[in-house]
Amino acid sequence: MSRYVPSEDLIARVAAGEIAAIARLISRAEAGAAEARPALSSIYRLAGRAHVVGITGVPGSGKSTLVATLAAALRAAGHKVAVVAIDPSSPYSGGSILGDRIRMSALAGDPGVYIRSMATRGAVGGMARATLDAVDILDVGGFDTIVIETVGVGQDEVEIVKASATTIVVSAPGLGDDVQAIKAGMLEIADIHVVSKADRSDANRTLADIKHMMALGLRAGVAAGWTVPVIGVSSYSGEGVELLLAAIASHGEAARTPAGDARRATIADFRLAKTAEAILLDRFTAATAPRRAALGIRLSRREADPYSLASELVETLIKDPT
Ligand SMILES: Nc1nc2c(ncn2[C@@H]2O[C@H](COP(=O)(O)OP(=O)(O)OP(=O)(O)O)[C@@H](O)[C@H]2O)c(=O)[nH]1
Ligand SMILES: [Mg+2]
What we know:
Elements: H1 7-15, H2 19-31, H3 37-46, E1 51-57, H4 63-76, E2 81-86, H5 93-104, E3 113-118, H6 126-140, E4 145-151, H7 155-162, E5 166-171, H8 180-183, E6 192-195, H9 203-215, E7 230-232, H10 241-256, H11 261-300, H12 306-319
Helix pairs in contact: 1-2, 1-3, 2-6, 3-6, 4-5, 6-7, 6-11, 11-12
């Protein structure tokens, strides 16, 4: 166990952009320990400057490759870029695959790029809370663009990208006849649609399919004044990368205007609920621990049913809220 650095020291070091301090505070956020909360409270008040970009798509759609391409392009445009990779099946693979790609590229050793793979399955309050805390830590650490990469399967993953200022949905040619974003119910969350692997000859069809769907108006919740672009991008040839950068920048500007208020409020509400869940779970676990073993025995003997006993446990928390 490493020494527990006092929060004030750690926050100052994070704010100075010290990577070791950033990594340590993210680990504390991941673990969800109550001791980390004062530091995370301070971080939240300092954060809010970075442009948070969420990228999602079905497995194999080319998200990780696109994120590496995007990180390099943003870096070349003078941004400090952080990537938070979330992989629901294996906490490390997404990040390490991406890490390998970055290592091989011109970004090796560049302090202006930081990649973090989240390992938060089962953490208190779940992945969404930990991920959004990590984003704030990176924001305070001086990264002006933070990319969250997550597979668009599962409610948690979709909610996390929805908590970004700009959400990009990636679809690839050749992964089936129907556009994957529609199958996975991701069509309506996109602020920008990317058709990846645009160097392939079948990419045009996927592009046309998505544009057609957009034209039919099969999209709810369109932000006022924003037309969702559909952009073909090849990480291999570089085609479309500049267009994507421009779209991200102009959506970021649109999001910062009063038109973005409703979305910010929705994101804040989501965050509040997730954080409350974390606190509630903590308190519930602590407050009910002494009684659980005995109730468990009664339950195993079928002397009572799980609903009655669980309600009893919840009641103890409500009666004694400390
Ligand atoms: N032709 C072509 N292939 C690409 C391109 N980008 C990615 N690929 C290939 O598509 C496959 C999937 O790419 P990934 O970036 O790993 O996709 P992913 O969406 O991150 O996949 P998961 O992490 O499994 O969800 C790999 O074999 C890539 O080499 C591209 O621009 N053109
Ligand atoms: Mg990936």
